[in-house]
Design goal:
Endonuclease, Chain A; two-stranded parallel sheet; elongated; alpha/beta; 2 domains
Length: 265
């Protein structure tokens, strides 16, 4: 027989502990009654009483019921608080009752937390010096910090230059306008964005920031003033290592497999 424990899962942790204690050493150890449940829960919960009666009728004694309630409580306490693991990052005009902020604040918070590595993935960069300066300072403070950019280097319409020329121009522009500091990151790009054929051209359109394989900001915002400070943008700040690691590993795999190539800076 399959038991439905929803009524027990709906109880507060305090009520679960009270029931377990009573099954172990209190009134419920002497027998299950509506009066006992009423006293423990400050009101008789019919669903809880029915659930417990089903357990007892299927051969579970008071010690076993106590162990089950302890197990539910312990599992609940081990489970992560999802509100702390996943936080929406909403940028744009204020809406009453809905917390918002600029995307740049979330990005800078992650940068300050970084100890080993920062991965930044984006489609467009404009006037990046303002946005990236805290990251450059972090690199200066921590010489061991590895910073990797994966950005879209695209061929402009009508540009018939060699791929290497387009990439070198982008590198010069990146160094002059977006990263004028001596501590240099690594920069990678998708060579398919340079294809002269629209049939084969593809863009690196993802936008995210991953720190130390343990936290990630996945967002609609590009690395531009408008996107980071003014636009209506939506993202999710994830503090869940398995997910952040999966995102970082994907881009590392693209680099190692040659799908992303390194741009010389």
């Amino acid at each position: 027989m399959r038991l439905n424990l929803d009524a027990l899962h709906a109880l507060s942790t305090a009520n679960l502990r009270a029931l377990a204690t009573s099954f172990r050493d209190g009134q419920l150890a002497m027998g299950l009654t509506a009066a006992s449940i009423n006293q423990l829960l400050c009101g008789c919960d019919v669903d809880v009483l029915s659930c417990l009666e089903t357990l007892v009728s299927n051969g579970m004694g008071a010690p076993q019921c106590a162990l089950l309630l302890d197990a539910i409580t312990n599992e609940r306490e081990r489970a992560p608080d999802l509100a702390r693991l996943f936080e929406p990052v909403l940028s744009g005009p204020d809406v009453p009752g809905v917390p918002t902020g600029d995307t740049a604040a979330a990005m800078q918070m992650l940068v300050q937390e970084a100890r080993k590595e920062v991965l930044l993935v984006g489609y467009a960069v404009y006037n990046g010096e303002r946005l990236f300066e805290p990251l450059a300072l972090r690199m200066r403070e921590n010489p061991e910090l590895k910073v990797t950019f994966c950005l879209n280097i695209a061929r402009r319409f009508g540009d018939t230059s060699l791929d290497s020329e387009v990439v070198n121009r982008y590198a010069l522009d990146f160094h002059q306008k977006h990263w004028p500091w001596p501590e240099l990151p690594e920069l990678y790009y998708d060579p398919r964005a340079l294809s002269e054929s629209s049939e084969h051209r593809a863009s690196l359109h993802a936008k995210c920031v991953v720190v130390d394989h343990r936290a990630a900001l996945i967002t609609s915002a590009n690395f531009t003033d408008a996107a980071q400070y003014r636009n209506i943008e939506m993202g999710l700040l994830v503090r869940h290592s398995p997910l952040a690691e999966r995102v970082a590993d994907y881009f590392e795999g693209l680099r190692l497999s040659g799908h992303l190539l390194r741009c010389p800076l």
